Amino acid sequence: MVEDLRGRVAVITGASRGIGAAVAEALAQEGCHLVLAARSADRLEALAQRLGQEHGIRAVAVPTDMADEAQVRALIRRAAETFGTVDILVNNAGLGLFGAVHELHMADLRDVFEVNFFGPVAAMQEVVPLMQRQGRGSIVNIASIVGRFPQPLGGGYSATKYALIGISGAARAELKRDGIRVILVCPGLTDTEFARHSRVSVPGLEAREGEAQAPFPGVSPERVARRTVEAIRRGEREVYVTFFDRLVVWFAWLFPGIFEALLVVAAGYRRDRFRRRRGLHQTAARAALDGPLLAVALTGLAGWLGWRLFRRRVGSPIQRPR
Prior knowledge:
Strand 6 (137-142), helix 5 and strand 7 form a beta-alpha-beta unit. The strands form two sheets. The chain has a seven-stranded parallel beta sheet, sandwiched between helices. It has a two-stranded parallel ribbon with strand order 5-8. By secondary structure, the protein is of the alpha/beta class. 53% of the residues lie in helices and 12% in strands. The chain has two domains: 9-241, NAD(P)-binding Rossmann-like Domain (Rossmann fold), CATH 3.40.50; 251-314. The model is unreliable at 280-293 and 316-322 (pLDDT under 50). It is built from nine helices and nine strands.
């Protein structure tokens, strides 16, 4: 059954840019009233005003630091006070972390866990009693495909998404009889400013920005938002935005040894890109080749995986006579 979202009240964290802003737009188009949360008060207020005017809904901006549990809980209470209830919670706010596991500053790792894991859990704890009283609700946790496999030089970030995925599955089973759905969205590479704003936790390089540009283009945040809203309307359990994202997760699960070897190569590649950006400055020719070469390699892997799965399903096309 497809749910009509008109008149529903949705709280969206990390709503000032990227996936969060796109989800806010998509829900406004469905007729949802919105409570938008992020640290960027000016951008948040501008978005709330625009969405209210363009879509004829009520939109409230509530500046919130997801690393502060008191602010997170106050956000949910403010939404309930303003609209009387909360029907949808979208835990989207996130912070990236770049650095090797053995070099990570523990303070950085704790900060990222506060935003990516403890903040969403606090929001869930605050919103569940509201949803239980009304006998329905949807909690959407935006995770990542790197919560399904390790990310070299991003192990701290991956760990937060592993944790979010695990607790989402537990909550889904616990809350199903209350009519509350827990939906997990696992995007892959997305064309946002997320990588640039990631925290760098590398000794001596802490003042640098994260990676300025991904190795190849990701999907648009609007595509992630459309898929997320579709999942809410249909009550899906776990969502991958593209078939390629799902294929990579399958590959990591079916062929862990080969995948680990690829991660070793990826670790060197990411380290070189980071150093070149502020150090040796890659040539224009190398810059033009980096993305396509990586894309070709990943496409080749996907094709090889498809062939192996086909062979496993139908058997070898050549049968030797006995």
